[in-house]
Description:
The structure holds two protein chains of two kinds. Chain A has helices spanning 46-54, 80-86, 98-101, 108-120, 124-137, 143-146, 156-168, 186-203, 214-220, 238-243, 248-255, 336-341; strands spanning 4-15, 18-30, 35-39, 61-70, 73-74, 91-94, 174-178, 206-211, 223-228, 231-237, 304-305, 311-312. By secondary structure, chain A is α/β, with parallel strands linked by helices. In chain A, helix 4 packs across helix 5, helix 4 packs parallel to helix 7 (156-168) and helix 7 runs parallel beside helix 8 (186-203). Chain B has one domain: P-loop containing nucleotide triphosphate hydrolases (Rossmann fold, 3-Layer(aba) Sandwich), CATH 3.40.50.300. Chain B contains 13 helices and twelve strands.
Amino acid sequence: MALLEVHDLKTTFKTEDGTVAAVNGLSFSVEPGSTLGIVGESGSGKSVTSLSIMRLIAQNGRIERGKILFKGENLLDKSEAEMRKIRGRDIAMIFQDPMTSLNPVLTIGEQIAEATRLHLGLSHKDALDKAVEMLELVRIPLARQRLKDYPHQFSGGMRQRVMIAMALSCDPAVLIADEPTTALDVTIQAQIIELMNEMQQRLGSAIILITHDLGVVAETCENVLVMYGGNMVEYATAQEIFEQPKMPYTMGLLESLPRLDQAGSRLVPIEGQPPNLLRMPPGCAFAPRCRYRMPICDEPVALYDFGAGHVARCFLYEARAEGQKPIEAENRPAIADSAVAQAPQRLTK
Amino acid sequence: MTAPSVSGHGAVATASDELVVVRDLHKYFPITAGVFSRHVADVRAVDGVDFDIRRGETLGLVGESGSGKTTAGRVILRLTEATKGSIRFEGRELVGLSRGELRPLRKEMQIIFQDPYASLNPRMTVGSIIREPLEIHKIAQGKDADTRVQELLRLVGLQPYHANRYPHEFSGGQRQRVGVARALAVNPKFIVADEPVSALDVSIQAQVINLLQELQQKLGLTYLFIAHDLSVVRHISNRVAVMYVGKIVEIADRDQLYENPLHPYTQALLSAIPIPDPGVERRKKRIILSGDIPSPVNPPSGCRFHTRCPVAFGRCKVEVPAFNEYEPGHRAACHWVEEHGGKAPDLTAGPSVL
């Protein structure tokens, strides 16, 4: 049994222009001690997925369908009080922006101690000792003195370390890291990634790493889930994703990346814009931007299995598609117009 | 090893292939305290920087946040005033020019900003945003301006009918195209691009990078490309300068810099970038620097990198290293490199310190 299983998750948000499905029919699972990378563009639903697991969806959002099984129990059936016991204790989260996700008027020590006091029932003094231990673990110098400092007295990299210390203080079984290094400089990013890898080896937690940086994924993840338009379009081991991508979107992402180890030739961008969640294409969400688009792509696409856990949602590998020629770029319906109509909705911060 | 050869002002004026010549540039932001706004300290954002930008090239300027790269770009355009130093544009000194004298030169130099959401006025149509510089500089009016706006929109890959829409109707990548069109409206020679793709999704980043490269070829533009993403900088630049706490620590041709980085900071910066290929990633040895970038209010003595440098020795704490030229066009400011005859230290050998 997997540690965390997500089944057919659908999360919708009410907006002024109508209801959008930020996540629509997503399923995946995470094994203990493994790292799953979730990649995708802004608006692809990756952050909403993590917030759905934590049951932290904003007021205008709703989990309409699906199951989120943690150790076999459905988190969607839990009461808010039960969820509060799970959050931070069993499933912890690191947010992208360490400046806004720490409380500016509480000392670092109080913030870390709060979690262990609530979840592990430690006394105030023990909780502070535990906080020192955690801060030393994430290599904050002079940890004991720094307990009394406020978040603004720390640099960005240090704040992110504090967040990690806080998230790991109750030895969570699952750690969700939502763009943990995006706001940081590369040399600090390298420190944080090394730290997360080390923590995982020590504590054996499963990590869900949400990022748009494929470099970070290559470095840390065993498995990769690629999201587009609110659903998974490809899932495989990191090796397979980078060496044998099946879905044209994944291929496009890899080609559009300038690489440090390959001298600069012309980049191959993915033309067009990410889909408007209010007006999703009838079939494959990526079809309007896809260079292999065929007539069949306007039908709903199923997942195709390529063995060893590698799946992709694409008609290129469908027998019925044989003989269908890609629609040439010239004959394609204009994408510019519909794309311009509206920028993709920003559903999360 | 050649002696430092920072050319004086006279020598530079004759060389016609240098569009922008920056010498000894300083920008200090004063910190004041008390009722009388007593001057107590300075943020030394740019602290003595020399470099040239050649006509038609892209000079990449990289560094971490707080290194002073954005301030350097703004001071060169005189969007903020230099504290000290010289900026020559086509041989003309910019420092000390009055606003009136500067105005005709503003046409020649433009900027593209990082945040395409914040840098376009939400209450103006895209057409009027692009039209504004045309009218200010009296380049085109009325029908002519309309035609020019449509031309510019086409040039950056948008459609003429987009002129009537507002910025919020566009996605991030398209907004950045509008920003590019606005910068190009006055036919500039030189563009400072300040993190132009950092706010965009990867698939859109590539579209904008390609656009900038095409425009450079078509219009013969010169770019100062400021970014923290070294893969993007490598892709687009001819030469690259690396900044650390207000100073340039290394400058070289792109391939020289990426293949043979001399300064330990450049080496660490390059090794920190994750490569999107699990095979390469596993073989790579990473240099992990300890600590954070120091504050530019009170920068470390001597070499500013000595507090984080794995090969720092006695001299580094007390003496500011000279910005020597070790290969043609390849300069670095490092005592270790100087004492080892232009050899780069091997940082991957030792244990990594965190």
